[in-house]
Amino acid sequence: MTFQPDESDVVILDGGLATHLEALGCDLRDELWSARLLLENPDVIRQAHLDYFAAGADVATTASYQASFPAFVRRGRVPAEARALIQLSVELAIEARDEAGGGMIAASVGPYGAYLANGAEYTGDYDLDEDALVEWHRPRWEALAESGADLLACETVPSHAEARAIARLLEETPNVNAWVSFSCPDGDHVGDGTPLSDCAALFAGNPQVVAVGVNCTAPSDVKSLMGHISGSPIVVYPNSGEAWDAENRRWTGIADPVEFGAAAREWRAAGATFIGGCCRTTPEHIRRIKAELA
């Protein structure tokens, strides 16, 4: 697995894969979330990747965020089948990349909290310590490392312990490249309250790490969070700016792609090298980023 970004330019990521899959008519109300479609409708995942490439994305992030060996085993699949499904997420992105005529594949490594499906990916409130997190992540990590992806996207990391676990897995696989991005509830900390600067420092200067940054956080906090990252290129792909109203079960706030694109220009000026969107961002958000950064 090799990856050499062009340091002279910005790399445009895709947007919310699950968001676009829902727009394509998929029901993702399931603990597997978008990974459910690896079982039921893989063709629509390929189409979603194609739509993001058409919008201007340079990178397809795979549908493996919420995929894991335990989750698929719980659905009645044996470990060999679980491994094949996890690697299928990369195969679909590669097929879309080839049809689109080029691009990179980032194999999504979602946090342990995504498997719990209880919101812990935003708090880091886990029942596993660092050693146990290494063991939990390792099977999927190894499957994705051997999948043909250009790099691993270790994303929505909410805790210092999980960041340390990822650093250890990188040491175990010296031929693997990755970016590491954290979920942050404010402009200074990751989900468990650790300063982002402490988490980012774990990866500073690591030649395997192509970028460190934030995702699944508010756009308004991005510039502040970027100020806490040093020694690495920076990746940012926040949410749309909307907030989830749990009582009324709806999204509130503004998700204007034009405003998002303008903000991306500011993030680039502040030093971000990899820029995209996360939850509730769409191909139109990526199209606006492309237009603003062209």
The largest sheet has its strands arranged as 1-10-7-6-5-4-3-2
Distance between the termini: 29 Å
Report the mean per-residue pLDDT as an integer: 94
Count of β-strands: 10
CATH superfamily: Homocysteine-binding-like domain
Q: Identify low-pLDDT runs.
A: none
Shape: globular
Number of domains: 1
Strand content: 5-15%
Helix percentage range: 40-55%
Helix tally equals 12
Radius of gyration of CA atoms, rounded to a whole number: 17 Å
The name of the CATH topology is TIM Barrel
- Strand-pairing-aware structural class: alpha/beta
Q: Which H/E pattern describes the elements?
A: EHHHEHHEHHEHEHEHEEEHEH
Quick one: CATH class?
Answer: Alpha Beta
Task: Report the major sheet.
Answer: 8 strands, parallel
CATH architecture assignment name: Alpha-Beta Barrel
Q: In brief, what are we looking at here?
A:
GO terms for molecular function: methyltransferase activity. Helix content is 42%, strand content 15%. It is of the alpha/beta class.
Please tag this protein with its features.
294 residues; alpha/beta; 8-stranded parallel sheet; two-stranded antiparallel sheet; 12 helices; 15% strand; EC 2.1.1.10; HCY_dom; transferase; BHMT-like; HCY_dom_sf
